[in-house]
Amino acid sequence: MTRIEALLHSHPPPADAASAAEAAAERLARAEAVATEARAAAALAQMRAEIACAEAARLRAAANDQGRALAEGEIRLASMEELNGRLRASEAFTSRLLAASRDCIEVLSLDGTVLWLSAGSAAVLEAGPDDRILGSDWRAVWPEPADRVAAELALAAARAGRTGRFRAASPTRRGALRWWDVVLTPIQGDAGVVERVLAVARDVTDAHHAEEQQILLMQELAHRVKNILAMVQAVATQTLRGATSLEEAATAFGGRLIALSHAHDILIQGSWAAADLQNVVEGAADLHGGRGPDRFLIDGPAVRLGPRSALALSLILHELATNAAKYGALSRVEGRVSVTWRIVAEASEPWLSLRWQEAGGPPVAAPTRSGFGTRLIERTLVHSLGGRASLTYPPAGVVFSLSAPLRAVQEASA
Amino acid sequence: MVLLVEDDGLLLMEASDTLVEAGFQVVEAPHADRALQVLESDREVDALMTDVDMPLGSIDGLALARLVARRWPWIPVLVVSGMGTPGPNDMPDGALFIPKPYAPFDLVQTLHDRVRRAA
Q: What ipTM goes with this model?
């Protein structure tokens, strides 16, 4: 029961009506006063509660701020220690890094004097304890005048705030000539002004030699390509000279190019220095019915041919086989060709003796004019190699024999 | 008469045919030593055309060209090679270098010019 209800119940109505109305009005006024008083008390309590909450919040916030500041302070202290530790580790790492580098790392003054060099540089330069590098003129290590000019230009570029770069040869302190790829970069001070120069030289001797080797190979390749083109030109012109029709010329030219191509394949296997005679003969046989005993009998010891002889012999064997396929043993199913060779002693030096013999073909007769093959045999084997060659046409089958000094046959030039 | 010095049989054959067809008489030599034998014989040589790399001889074509220019200075010299252009001191004065492969017509024209000028 509220206080107002309690007041109403505590004053029962009087007996007469006028008195009852007055009493009721009096009770109502008192009840309203009590209610007003209660509302004010409630509002005051709420206000106090709100103030207390706000104060609590303020205190809580203050307490948090203070705690955070303390924590941050602790963290800051821990970070500095860690940072110092990291810096020490970093310095040690950098030091190990510079010592491990195979580059020669130097700091130069603007006039090129060596002010500092990394621990690893001494090893790279093969410098001993008595070799004085600090304080020396960095430009003086380049013995070639042109390289010294390049070094001066690179230093000038670095002084001007740019990167200077050059490649040059310079001996180590022990006199071993090395090639260096050198990069000079400016070291700027706080004001952005170039104060020193960082010189990093990398030993590129192996790469330089590889490049030189590559240039030599390219020159050699260019030489070979020119020679091959000259050969192809000669084959083409010779084919056209002896041809009776364009079709015949085209067929003959194509066959000769393929024979040359096979010879090249064999030579490439021997790094262009040598070709095995057996491979050359088998290559010719492959182009004309295969090397099986039913067509070609091939027999002889291992003999190394020089490139020029290999190319010439490939062409000659191709001509012989082409003629055998047209008019000789290879024009019949039962026809056979034997190609045999051996090394013989002649005039106290070894000679190569090779024989091509056809059998099982139609009766043959000597051609009325010298063809490409016959003339090539004469020019190559007799004239160029100083050997002997014969091409005969007995009825049983064509016989070609050659003898040439092994030394000439094996000559490496092509 | 043209003294043709070339150690490759195929190239020798083709160069020889080209010059013969153009009206020259040709003497062939596979290397410098044989060429010198021809030069030292009674045969009259109007021009020398030589390859460079000829390993079967005792000297190469450039050395032969220099020797001919010194001993027989009236003989025009043509050096033919698939190798790069010779250096400035490799060739004798007045000698002409022709790279391989060459156009047969140009070779014939050049030889005619040189022989005519030397006559």
A: 0.89
